[in-house]
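Case study 2.
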Amino acid sequence: MTSAAMLSGNHGCLVGISKPTVFTGASAMFLLVYLALWKYHDINNPLLASASSLTGDETRAAISLQDNIIEEPEQITSCDPPVNVTTFKNESVPVIYFVTPTYARSVQMAELTRLGQTLSSVPALHWILVEDAPKCNPAVGKLLRRLGIPFTHLASAMPSAYKKLKNPPRGVSNRRAALQWIRSNVKQGVLYFGDDDNSYDLRLFDEIRDTRNISMFPVGLVGDYAVSAPVVYDGKVVGFYDSWPAGRRFAVDMAGFAVNIKLLHQFPNATFVYKVGFEEDSFLQEIVTDVGFIEAKAANCTQILVWHTRTVQVPMAMLQPPTLIIEDTSISGLLHALDENKLASFSTSRGKPSSVHYLTDV
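Prediction:
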């Protein structure tokens, strides 16, 4: 070796060799041990291992996110008196704790109404709804009480440092808050993370209710493959069919797994990282110590019982209220409902003029 040579680790750690060098004896052994330990460090650190599979700007963004933002404990607000989690009619049936992050937007109440009416058909289910806000929206609480589903209503806003990112990790603070609540209040049952805009086949709940450790199943309408799904061989999960592996050990969607709460209690520090795309993998790497106890659901992961649907986001309307309003009509209550549900805001000086067309005008 007559010219300068470089040895490079997975993270660009360089060792320069400026003159002919022969590694023998103790120095060769030292080098081999060093490289082996470095590789082991990469594989066993889920954040670095995931980031090392990315390239260019993705790698720098993934690592800098962890380096530059200091995590602070979530600020959690409990919005309604908690429901007694043991007051279900048949306590021999495992309770499903359905965690849903949500945030204020024009379609929020429509999404929650649709999801809530689905969940109202599921027996032995406790809905943990966590808003991304400093405090809870009274309209959301009103909906929860009207639906009659046992629920816990919390608020936990995303830390301000993450809101400045181009792609903020939405839903992480909400799920972390739900984990804290469960660890403090629930001893047994099944944990499932369900987004407010997903669509659910009622058979999914029958599938996951008997989860012994952790169960997995396909999610439709995800990525370029139109599905994210475990691959099953001889009844065991051996891989994942997902269009964005990104170095993740568990390439699954948030809606594609359920966890027995007794297993969750065995790992009191397991949580989600604030890194878009790696939330599920970070959590699962903490609690899945043996891939052999992953249970394949939905006919050995050949059926799709949950879909990652999305509603088109409708901008909130800015309106000027009608100038001609006949007293005691419904219009004032209707305008209040528009404002309460974040469908429109009103100003007397700006926005699109609105008007009422009375039958007497025709």
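The longest strand covers residues 96-102.
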